[in-house]
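Dear colleague,

Thank you for sharing your sequence with our group. We've completed the structure prediction you requested, and as agreed, I am returning the results in plain text so they can be pasted directly into your records. Please verify that the sequence below matches your submission; if there's any discrepancy, let me know and we will rerun it promptly.
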Amino acid sequence: MNATLELHRFILEPFEAQRFANLCGQLDEHLRLIEQRLAIEIRNRGNQFELIGDARRTQAAEFLLRRLYRETMACELTPDMVHLFLQESAVEDLGSAKGDASISLKTRKGMIRPRGANQQLYVKSILEHDINFGIGPAGTGKTYLAVACAVDALEREQIRRILLVRPAVEAGEKLGFLPGDLSQKVDPYLRPLYDALYDMLPAEQVERRLASGEIEIAPLAFMRGRTLASAFIILDEAQNTTPLQMKMFLTRFGQGSRMVVCGDPNQVDLPNPAMSGLADAVRKLEDVEGIATMRFSASEVVRHPIVGRIVEAYEGPPKDA
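Please find the predicted structure tokens below.
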């Protein structure tokens, strides 16, 4: 055996065949994923494990496998879930958490727990500050967790309504050529917000609350002239606002409200990307009391692992054709 590698043994108990099969995955795909991501070798005979590799990584793998085994008591593991836990291990410096793993958000479809230290700090920040900026690439949970915080606040009656807002900016297609009236034209731009809601609330609850105005999903232009009290207001795709639009949005803030602004500075669809209201607002407001900013990186993408690699490739230095 290579002198730089160590053998680490442990036993998972209690041994339950169905839970153990759930842990390993079809054809041991979950174990192979952990091997690949942590650069170790996993051998097992039943619930007796041998891990071969760098000592720090094998210890992190044991910690991860024990956590996943506990999860098998409540749910069916999938490769995506294993990926999420692996992301958390990486963010938490292989087991040394800096976030608060006790944070959870209440929705009608169950509790939502942020993954990894940055997501935990992001949710904690949303709960503690009036206005929050969540900045980073798609797939890092910025908008999804903000919607979860809003639903949690509504369920706990801390607010009276939720407003989910997006700028209807053309991304390679002209709105005028889309079929339907204005509402139908902008609806595709708002679809990701609907998707998040339906993940957290039963369909009939979403429809009823949309009809009553308790939840409102609207283009940014519809916010002009309003002052919003006792509301949880989320602006998604904020990189596609101008500085004037961003100022207009932020000044809608009213008593008893909370606001989250989410965006990816590297995905600006404005004619002049340098005029993004998101970058302008963060630069001007980052040190203002009551306002917080959380930045996410491509390494924290919680979708399929290849999404993070795609983001890193696009954001890296250019390569010769």
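Summary note from our side: The CA atoms of residues 198 and 206 lie 7 Å apart.

Kind regards,
the structure core
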